[in-house]
Design a protein that fits this description.
By secondary structure, the chain is of the alpha/beta class. It has two domains: 122 residues, Dihydroxyacetone kinase, domain 1 (Rossmann fold), CATH 3.40.50.10440; 123 residues, 2-Layer Sandwich (Hypothetical Protein Tm841, Chain: A,domain 3), CATH 3.30.1180. The chain has eleven helices and 13 strands. The strands form three sheets. Strands 10-9-8-13-11-12 form a six-stranded mixed β-sheet, sandwiched between helices. The protein has a four-stranded parallel β-sheet with strand order 2-1-6-7, sandwiched between helices. A three-stranded antiparallel β-sheet has the order 4-3-5, covered by helices on one side. Keywords: Lipid-binding.
């Protein structure tokens, strides 16, 4: 048995096969649709089923944070199972209070069990979706091989200090309501046919460019990614329900970089609530930020 347990949350968008193969513990974000509560990954395992609800509901679904109690229960569970370390990788702390819940749970566990030979690491991914899910999967591979916990933590911190997302939503409805794009910018963008390139870097989001028309999206994303990627490092393609643009991005990015994507991953409920499902994006390893 590995001595280090790797844990994350469902906004990491880790494919189910990786979750099983590398024994990753994934906590599901609670989702509210109408008057009903669901849990990401437990409910809607087929992501298109959630997209259907997302676009058909009169009120946009919401998600809540993972609670301190849920973290405490997991810490107790894996300590009692004999693990010596637990690494929890959290969705960007600037976008969710889940990080603080995990920190409080860690403090409470350590106060309740001063005798425990069990070290808990809480890491802020400072990003979203498979931009941190990829690193979690790699960390879980290392844990299975018996890699020292400090080496795993160092790998994760290096990735989180350099990972960048370049993405475009073809509809601004959800980005506007989540605050990723202002209402005024969304109105003007829709009126003029402008699509924003949204970046998520070091915990912050920005809009470094706007392109006119759908045809300009993929070339612009590829241009940004090629300019900022550290040569020969892995990259990931993100997508939702737009398979045509996904396929164009896969082809054009490989042509520009010279090697295929490490993974091609569909976004889940938590991410699509905030930006919509009609999007494509590229995750790269850029320059170190710290």
């Amino acid at each position: 048995m590995a001595i280090t347990k790797i844990m994350t949350d469902s906004a990491s968008d880790i494919p189910a096969q990786y979750e099983a193969d590398y024994e990753i513990e994934i906590l599901g974000f609670p989702l509210t649709i109408g008057e009903e509560t669901y849990y990401e990954r437990v409910d809607f395992p087929v992501k298109e089923d959630f997209y259907t609800r997302l676009y058909s509901e009169p009120k946009i679904p919401t998600h809540a944070q993972i609670t301190q109690m849920e973290f405490e229960e997991k810490f107790e569970e894996f300590w009692k199972k004999g693990y010596q370390n637990l690494i929890y990788v959290c969705i960007n702390s600037k976008g969710s209070n889940t990080f603080n819940s995990a920190l409080m749970a860690k403090k409470h566990f350590e106060e309740a069990h001063p005798e425990a030979d069990f070290t808990i690491y809480i890491l802020d991914a400072k990003t979203y979706s498979y931009a941190y899910g990829y690193a979690v999967v790699e960390a879980a591979k290392k844990a299975q091989k018996g890699t020292a916990v400090k080496e795993i933590v160092a790998y994760l911190e290096d990735w989180f200090n350099s990972v960048e997302i370049y993405a475009t939503a073809y509809s601004l409805e959800f980005a506007k309501k989540s605050g990723r794009v202002s209402s005024t910018a969304a109105f003007v963008g829709e009126l003029l046919g402008l699509k924003p390139v949204i970046t998520f870097i070091d915990g912050d989001n920005a809009t470094p460019a706007k392109v006119r028309g759908d045809k300009a999206v993929v070339p612009t994303l590829v241009k940004f990614a090629k300019e900022h990627i550290v040569p020969k490092t892995p990259y990931i393609i993100l997508y939702g329900n737009n398979m045509e643009e996904r396929d164009k991005l896969i082809k054009e990015m490989e042509k520009a970089i010279g090697y295929p994507a490490a993974d091609i991953v569909q976004i889940g409920a938590t991410i699509s609530i905030n930006i919509g499902a009609n999007l494509v994006g590229i995750v790269i390893k850029g320059a170190q930020k710290h």
